[in-house]
Design goal:
This protein is α/β, with parallel strands linked by helices. The protein has a single domain, classed as Alpha/Beta hydrolase fold, catalytic domain (Rossmann fold). It has six helices and four strands. The protein has a four-stranded parallel beta sheet, sandwiched between helices. Helix 5 links the parallel strand 3 and strand 4.
Length: 191
Amino acid sequence: MHHPFLAGVANELEGLGIATLRYQFPYMEHHGKRPDPPALCHATARAAVAAALQLSPSLPLFAGGKSFGGRMTSQAQAASPLADVRGLVFLGFPLHPPKQPSETRAQHLFKVKIPLLFLQGTRDAFAELSLLQPLLVQLGDGARLTLIQDADHSFHVPARTGRTDAQVQTEMLTALSSWTDSITSMLRREM
């Protein structure tokens, strides 16, 4: 939760007018090396959503996370919809472990019935584009992929690109803000 990347994301989103609620899974709180069982992670995501709703009940709510956090949030949503969540945002969805291409980690996404935003680096070893892009086509119109050129799973880019991590983060979060605005506008029109 206090990782510089996540703190930077929260600060920049605040500048874009988007409030954030950061949390961590119990194993991170206790400095454990092994992730908690999925059921505990799902319950933690649900508790975070409930806390966000209590703190700001009038704001449109989006959930998600970086890598494992995003996957656990989407699994919780697939099992039983998270209260009032309008869409899920993935900052580097971990489709598979590096050098072990597979789509099995994404099968639960077909049960998610709210919009999905995948922000992925084109060099992300956890999500080969040859697998991720066809998956998003199968997920349909509710899934959007925004590729961050030359970024890896941590959204770092090689120095040769001439871009800084801060520029990449701004590009990524501008896309996120635009997407949440479009979802919120669509929901207003439906009301």
